[in-house]
Amino acid sequence: HFETLEQLFPGHPRTIEAALSHSELLQRQQRLAEARAVIERLPRRSLTAIQRDHVELRLGSLDVIDGQAEAARARFLSVKDAKETALRQAAFNGLGDAALFLGDDQEAEDWYRQAEAIDPGCPAGAYAIYQQGRLLLKAGRRQEAMERFRALTTHPLQTPDRLLMLNARLALALSYLVSGEPDTAREELRGAAQEAPDSRQAARIDYYLALLALHDGQLEDAKRLARNVGQRAADSDEAFEAQLLLADLSAGEGSF
Fold it and tell me: Among candidates 8, 20, 77, which has minimal Cα distance to 47?
């Protein structure tokens, strides 16, 4: 148990490793203040250089979420020349995230490309590919974006990140739908259902099913599915989009 380790062996390498993992888990649960507190309690003077790099990456990730992109950028820059390739790759991705937050899409793409080049087959490399796909989609380069997303869904990773794979499939499904290929979009959504790590993530799929229902003229089904997203995945981007869709349909303006 992490708290026991922290109390009995505060400077032990296993305690530091557990703190980093515990902080990441808290971040995934949106408990950001707790995630930061776990790291800030670590005895900095007893950390090795590699451990300090891990701490900087962890805090940089939290800084990005908190909107402190410049602070995050400084942390990631301090790690980008680390000896360990995994640390450098994480720093490159972090620099991409910071640049994205600051509105510099070209710089973000450059950092993600560097991260991918280190090892495209690991989770950090997959994340870099996914972020490039998002940037291409934002720039209106849909076909190129779809190639990036397909690269993730058709080439199994060494250690799959199910949430990332789900996001890639959802992005691909939406791209197919916008491209006028609803049947292919449905196939991707079936694959997404298999990737969903939990029921909350699975509920996000209903937003895209709502768009398909709307495409098919099934307005009541579209409304039902959109409501389901808001109830089961309330803090997701899809829930926000589903509310807009519901408002549009309620106003009698729903169309695809």
Answer: 20
Angle at 148 between CA 124 and CA 166, to 5 degrees: 65
Q: Residue 198 — φ and ψ, nearest 5°?
A: -160, 175
pLDDT band at 8 (very low <50, low <70, confident <90, very high): very low
Residue with tokens 């557990």: 18
- Between CA 225 and CA 208 the distance in angstroms is 9
Q: Are 118 and 85 in contact (CB under 8 A)?
A: yes
- Whether the CB-CB separation of 172 and 188 falls below 8 Å is answered with yes
Surface-to-core class of residue 220, CB atoms within 10 Å of its CB (0-12 exposed, 13-18 middle, 19+ buried): exposed
- The size of the chain, in residues, is 256
Q: What is the average per-residue pLDDT within 106-135?
A: 95
